[in-house]
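May I ask for a single protein's sequence together with how it folds?
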Amino acid sequence: MHGFQKERPDIAPTYFAQIDASGTVQRVIVADQAFIDSGKVGDPASWKQTYLDGHKRKRYAGRGFRYDKSADAFVAPTSTAIMK
């Protein structure tokens, strides 16, 4: 785990999805905002927070999902995209 999780186990983990230039989620990690902002995992602008319960951004992001900027939501891949 990155950031505060090791030092503060009493705080719920936060999850971030790395989005590429085409809007596709490349990976999801557990980190705090300061770690993302540090640039240690690439451009901070390429990361969006995702939530296990989907209360923001419609659903929890997964690798291969698409981030829809206009809806501020993660969109699950279609079954056709999964088969590729």
In short: The mean pLDDT is 87.
